[in-house]
Amino acid sequence: YNLNMIIRSHQAKQDGYEYNHDGKVLTVFSASNYCGGNNWGAVVRWDYNEEEPWISSFKTEGVAMEKLSFSKQVTLFEDPAYHSLIEKIMSNKTLLLKEFLKADTSKTEHLSLTIWADIMSDVLQMDLPWLILRTKLVQVHEYLLN
């Protein structure tokens, strides 16, 4: 075999990735904050006509598991669709925040559920039942529903 590099995903790396063996081995770990740790995650893409891979590191906010109900903890760890949705939201969090702030014209730090749902659909380009999903994604203040 005429290999130039081996890319593996085997163990957590503090920066999400690490080169070893004179740059011939690249370890990539895609789970940031793995098991409550403080590591970064990374994604690597290598186009066939490029000399070097493209690497993007990321780190998500840690979740205080003790503050979640048992059912929400189970959902976070066992539902792959929910996990995928959270990854999509986190990868677009900067743009989401920008749109939320722009929509909050009265600077109350609160949005109506319909505006929130519209922004989620527009930014994430996902036609989902956001108003149903809201209970798993955002805190709704009862006094704002009246």
TrEMBL record:
Q: Key word Transmembrane present in the record?
A: no
For activity, the cofactor(s) needed are: Mn(2+)
Q: Which Gene3D superfamilies match?
A: 3.60.21.10
Q: Which UniProt keywords apply?
A: Manganese, Metal-binding
This entry's Gene Ontology molecular function terms read:
hydrolase activity; metal ion binding
Q: What PANTHER family does the database record attribute to this sequence?
A: SERINE/THREONINE-PROTEIN PHOSPHATASE 5-RELATED, SERINE_THREONINE-PROTEIN PHOSPHATASE 5
- The protein here is known as Uncharacterized protein
> What is the organism field in this record?
Adineta steineri
